[in-house]
Amino acid sequence: MQLFGQKKHLINRDNLEQILNDCKKGDRHAQKAVYDFLAPKMTALCLRYMGDRDSAEDVLQDGFVTLYSKLGSYLGEGSFEGWARKIFVNTALMSLRKNDALKQSEDVDAARDIASPEPTVLDRLSYAELTRLVASLPPGFRTVFNMYVVEGYSHREIAGELGISEVTSRSQLMRAKAMLQEKIKNL
Amino acid sequence: MDSKLRSMLRDAEMKPSGRVWKGIEARLGAPSGQGRRGAWIWGISLAGAAAALAAVLVVSNTGNSNRLYISEDAVALTREPEATALPLSSLVPNELPSVEEVSGRVSAPASEVPARISEVSAPLGDGQEQVSVTDDGYGASTSADSEGAREISSTGVAGTDTGRSGESSAMRRNRHGRDRLDSTDGLDPEEAVSTRKGPLRLTAKGSVGQNIGTGYVPSRPMRAPSTYNPTQTATGIFETGSSTYGAPVTFGIGLNIPISGRISIGTGIDYSLLTRSFSGIYSEMENMSIEGNVMHKMHYVGIPLDVNFSVYRNRYINVYAFVGGEIEYCFSNTYTIRGGASDIVYREPVKGFQFSTEAGAGVEARLNNYMGLFLAPAVHYYFMGNQPKSIRTEKQFMVGVSAGLRFDLKEKR
After folding, report:
1. What is the interface pTM, i.e. ipTM, of the complex?
2. B161, B206, B265, B340: which one has the fewest Cβ atoms less than 10 Å from its Cβ?
């Protein structure tokens, strides 16, 4: 069955399994279909972690190459997008560690209670604007923020992944929220 | 509040630039280090082939292979001043004819062509959500259900309301209205091609040259090696006939360092071979001399330095101009005399350096995401110095052409 042609790359729940099977066989059209399906969201994800567009696209490229090579380990259990998201998060974290970006983070000892931004304020923001604001946070702040708030990691997991203490993880998160709130106010 | 942030950030979408998929394609085509090594071997082979092609072009341009060589009735080569084997006056003709043609060498500049592709679009299917992308390639984002298919369009704003977050379409439209980032993010693919700084690049090249100038021609007998002293007589090699000059060839490897979007600095290391042959006499002792054909070979190693300016480029091609110079050192200078029972190799060290300057233009065609093939004609001027006789001392102006490959050492940022 012809699932996709030269210009038509569509993935839906019905053909996902077939496309992934073709992808595992190295079918370039299937790989492109998966790319088209995931790239927009993964670009935003990578930008949130890396902070700048060029680094984000480098990670995006590495992430897709890793994803294609590991497709065999995806057994269809759970969301494919969720499975893919973990690959891109790990790729971004590896890149940040490699570039020592996390060591450039501010060391925050005293966490303070920071109020979160008002939901009504967020409603006035576009997704892209919010993504850009998160990307503009210092590397350590935005990494903890992304892992905790967006990906749902616990502070213990974050501490293990980043090699920091749980206290530091909490304080980085607080400062990240405070800084984000300030940036939203200044818009 | 965190759930609101999570929902917005997880559903945010941004359109990647075309270079991402191009890069992925290239890496999928050459998986792991083996493919890369294979590409390098292939690239170096292609560089050699390109150099050979350039040589063929030069030869074919002459119309006659003999024109690659120049003839000269020249005389005299001395080395050791303390002994006299043959009087110079008996060997020197009255005057020298002019040199006709020779070959030269050319060095290679470098520049870069980033790879970018443009947008693609796909039609919507039933129940699928449309995601719009603004022309700056960075703006649009809306929620997209992973269970549904999506369309990517370059035509601007559009959005429907089947997203995961369950927000109203009016809210989404409001977001789309503000859903752009600054144009200074440099996300337009075509603009980025011309303004963004390129990657560090490795150059592998080969070049040949052909003399067209009317430079310095000695009006009196010229000692080939080292210094010139017409009153000197010595033991050594004496030219008794005309010289023929082989086309100088150069092979090199270097780096191209980007300075800005259009300007880069090229440097590296070159190896050049200059050859000529002539009839001569080798005299080692007062009572011993051998007459025969002499093959003179000079091996140079040099460091070029060029400034390259990209005049025009797009994702496929880069047209550039360059100026620069090179300093070279002759590490081997040998004369092989064939006339006796066996060949005699006579070596003479060379002091000093050969300085030259060059200017030219080149064209580079992008072969894939990390490699380009270039061809660059150039004009050279070789400064007179304390160098042995060669085509460069006979004709200081040379034109030549170089060809080779350039590899991106780091993915373009």
Report:
1. 0.82
2. B340
